[in-house]
Amino acid sequence: MDIIDFTHVVTRAGSAFGFTTMAVTGMTVYYSHGRTLHAVKQRSVWVPWAASAGTMILASSVSGGVVGKVGAGFTGTGDKAGAAVGSVALGQSGAASVDLTATEVLSYSGSWLALTGVIGLGLYVYFAKSWKERALALSGAVTGATWGLASSIGGWAAMVGVPLVSWLGDTVIG
Predict the structure, then answer these.
(1) Which of 32, 85, 113, 120 is the most buried (most CB within 10 A)?
(2) What b/e sequence results for 10-37 when a residue is b if at least 16 CB atoms lie within 10 Å of its CB, and e otherwise?
(3) Any idea what DSSP says for residue 90?
(4) CA 174, chain centre distance (Å)
């Protein structure tokens, strides 16, 4: 069985896995810091998580190339992990569920902004000062490429976010 799968289609199992990853990450931070919401609100927690989640949502909106492969790798791996966890924990893999796929695609210039974000995410993970920072960034990346993408399909991120980043790319890059 291959661990990494490449697809731009989010299954219900992958979406559920991404949501669970987000919730478990938040609970881990909350409980490990004495059950205070202040721990979750710290910039050292939410900035790496939110930035990597947003980057993976954008990377999943790129249709090809290395950036598309990075987004598809996180999405496909989240789908497979969700199906595996669902089989063990719930007794069903969610494979019969309807697939979710993005309809909005970034423009060429917007794709360059997504590439910049993916490179920034890679540098952040490489130069992170602790495993906590790396884990938060990877948790955000998995959540963004699965549940974040699925929740944005047909929602504000697909209708507003992708065209906004495409416009920003056209404005900044040309």
Answers:
(1) 113
(2) bbbbbbbbbbbbbeebbeebbeeeeeee
(3) T
(4) 27
The residue whose two tokens read 């976010």 is 161
Please name the residue that has the structure tokens 């906004």: 164
Q: pLDDT digit string (tens) for 33-88?
A: 888 778 778 888 888 999 998 888 888 878 788 888 888 888 888 888 888 888 88
Radius of gyration of the chain (CA): 16
Other beta carbons less than 10 A from residue 98's beta carbon: 7
- The C-alpha atoms of residue 14 and residue 97 are separated, in whole angstroms, by 11
Distance of alpha carbon 55 from alpha carbon 153, whole angstroms = 16
User: What would the two tokens of residue 55 be?
Assistant: 């980057």
pTM above 0.85, yes or no: no
Neighbouring residues of 131: CB distance < 8 A, sequence distance ≥ 6? none
Residues 7 and 77: their CA atoms lie apart, in Å, by: 9
Looking up tokens 């404005």, which residue turns up?
A: 171
Helix or strand (DSSP H, E) at 101:
strand 100-101
